[in-house]
Amino acid sequence: MTTELKVPALPESVSDGVLVCWHKQPGDAIRRDEPLVDIETDKVVLEVPAPQDGVLEKILVVDGSTVVADQVIGVISASGSLSQVADNTEEAVVELQAAVGDDTVPAPGPAARRLLAEHDIDPRHLSGSGRSGRITKADVLAGITQVQAAAQPVAAPPAPEPAARAVPPPPAPEPAARAVPPPAPSLPEYEEERPQQRVPMSRLRARVAERLLQATQTTAMLTTFNEVNMQPVKALRERHRDAFEKKHGVRLGYMSFFVRAAAEALKRHPEINASIDGDDVVYHGFCDIGVAISTDRGLVVPILRNAEYMSLAEIENEIVDFATRARDGKLTMEEITGGTFSITNGGVFGSMLSTPILNPPQSAILGMHSIKDRAVVENGEVVVRPIMYLALTYDHRIVDGKSGVTFLKTIMELLEEPAAMLLDL
User: Fold this and answer.
1) CA distance 168 to 163
2) CA contacts within 13 A on the Cβ side of 154
3) Catalytic residue positions?
4) Domains of the chain and CATH, by start
């Protein structure tokens, strides 16, 4: 009895995905709920688990192929108790050992066996580089290369030219009107010292590019800047950092202060916490704040739901959890969908100033930057303070310049008086 392995239901608004990689090969034993294959969509990576114990009998879709929901991508042998899997494996080992002629040499693994069968290669003609002389996949690939090289026809040497031959007279020049233009110069070939590599764009990177281009083409983006004195937040953080970490099990960072300040400012400036839907403006009575997280696969923006009700500890714990699962590709579609406002922190990479791009349909995004000691004037005296430049990009179709400037100023004032913000004063 066999069971078809199908692509699970994809998230809403996602039509297809790319099969990234198989974790098992045909002939491998599998256990129920063990990850078998990864499928990358525009926003998340889905793990397809094994529906039951057994053996992966066939792979119908190779790595890098585009798949859709409910598509059959593999076949699992349902005869699959673990004891039977062990018996099948033992039989394969005996057969291959007999072919090799030495029962002390371990049989090749599933991947190597598959290549041997596909290319009709006798394992006795290969030398194993694995443990105890086991033939590995690399050994089989090397053998395939040798067979292909041996099959290439040998070019015959050029025939020697005759010792003497008559030299024909030079042809008469053609008229100028029939002159053939010289061929265009060919492109230079790159030398080994100037390597290049062409790789396909990942689904996530392609989706990010599409969204950013959409934002620049369909919104009226404008950016305003300000600077904030981070000394009060820095002093508060240093004073309570150890006690906070001991009690809540998470470090007290700067992002939680910015999330709290942004949530409070959004309540005071509802036009920033709005979006355009057709000919209507939708004002949101909640603050779902997205926090941009950079991963090896690209940028993702998980959402802190109802951030206006979250404590600093809850915010920090959520951000740490999001960052860990984002880098492992474990975020769900619901966790990165929606949001009424976004925050991005280029300062962690050393950025001093930038203009963030909107995340439609949101009407604004806040950009954080590096904290640098700078000379500022306070009460008529020049003092050194840790200063951060802030950037607010907003959609001028819905947010006026005055609203954008006053919103950013509100965030600045809340951060420079963090006690009043935390005490809801």
Assistant:
1) 16
2) 3
3) 396, 400
4) 2-77 (2.40.50.100), 82-144 (4.10.320.10), 220-422 (3.30.559.10)
Q: Are 111 and 130 in contact (CB under 8 A)?
A: no
Tokens in use for 267?
């309540």
Question: What 3-state class would DSSP assign to 126?
Answer: coil
**Element of type H or E holding 118:** helix 110-118
Q: Are 27 and 114 within 8 A, CB to CB?
A: yes
| Full DSSP string of 311-376 | -HHHHHHHHHHHHHHHHTT---TGGGS--SEEEEEGGGGT-S---PPP-TTBSEEEEE--EEEEEE
For the stretch 151-181, what's the b/e string if a residue is b when 16 or more beta carbons lie within 10 angstroms of its beta carbon? eeeeeeeeeeeeeeeeeeeeeeeeeeeeeee
- Helix and strand numbers (H, E) in the chain are 9, 19
Sign of the Cα torsion 9, 15, 21, 27 reads positive
Tell me the pLDDT of the chain averaged across its residues: 81
Q: What is the pLDDT of residue 86?
A: 44
Report the sign of the C-alpha dihedral through residues 94, 98, 104, 109, in that order. Answer: negative
Give residue 77's pLDDT. 85
Of 304, 408, 402, which is closest to residue 356 (Cα–Cα)? 408
What stretches in the chain show pLDDT beneath 70?
A: 11-13, 42-43, 79-107, 109-111, 114, 118, 120, 130-132, 148-192, 425
Predicted pLDDT of residue 39: 84
For residue 67, the SS3 value is strand
Q: pLDDT value at position 144?
A: 78
Q: Give me the pLDDT at residue 283, please.
A: 95
Q: Look-up: residue for tokens 């995004």?
A: 365
